[in-house]
Amino acid sequence: MTDWNQRSFRGTWNRYPYTEVVSFVLGRFGSVEDRATISMLDLGCGGGSHLLFLAAEGFDFHGVDGNEESVNRANQRLGLAGYAQDRARVADFAHLPYDPDHFDVVIDRGALTCNRGVEIPALIGEIGRVLKPGGLIFSMLLHDSAAAVAGGVAVGNNDFVDFPGNLTGAGLLHFTNVDEARYLFSAFSIESIERQATVAEFPSPDAIVLTAWTVVVARK
Questions:
Q1: So what's the pLDDT on residue 208?
Q2: Is the model's pLDDT at 199 over the cut of 60?
Q3: What is the distance of C-alpha 34 from the center of its chain?
Q4: CATH number for the 15-219 domain, one of 3.40.605.10, 3.40.50.150, 3.10.180.10, 3.30.70.120?
Q5: Coil, strand or helix: which one is 131?
Q6: Other C-beta atoms within 10 Å of 107: how many?
Q7: How far is CA 11 from the centre of its chain?
Q8: What is the pLDDT of residue 9?
Q9: How far is it between the farthest Cα atoms of the chain?
Q10: CB 17 within 8 A of CB 53
Q11: Helix axes of 49-56 and 68-80: crossing angle, nearest 10 degrees
Q12: What is the DSSP code (8-state) at residue 187?
């Protein structure tokens, strides 16, 4: 089992939420009048940038992370902003500390992809347990074509370690192809699987910088 307290990444210190998360949340729930009735879990909440966004927008917000320092930072930031300081919790994704049928939405912006491929199906099953029937998962998984660009060392099953550059300190990452994405979420109603790519124009025209899958599914 990964010791998340020995694993850190720059996302812990993000000040602002990721654009993809903001677009998804407000696109789906921006018109809801009583947003406090929509319960959302940020899987791998890091230092709390998504939690601060969800809190500011009036949603019922919760977060889990395996890194105790990140969770402490998230709760501190929430407190300084005037929000509840107990919404981020240290937790193993395989054993989420919530009752069944608890959340309307689970946000995974690159948390599942930080696990070995063989571990991910069980983690998604646990997400399904805490999700309400009809509840949504928004997940971003690294595309397998990004593995060569990232420059890590392959350890089998599309798992890679020892990344240089911007991914230094990321630990193990799993890269996913479309067939695997379909398989991982086969117990859910798949609404969309989209490929997002960042492509450089200069100095290397048409060079792919990063590719990822954005997956939206609903619990049956």
A1: 60
A2: yes
A3: 25
A4: 3.40.50.150
A5: strand
A6: 28
A7: 11
A8: 53
A9: 51
A10: yes
A11: 30
A12: T
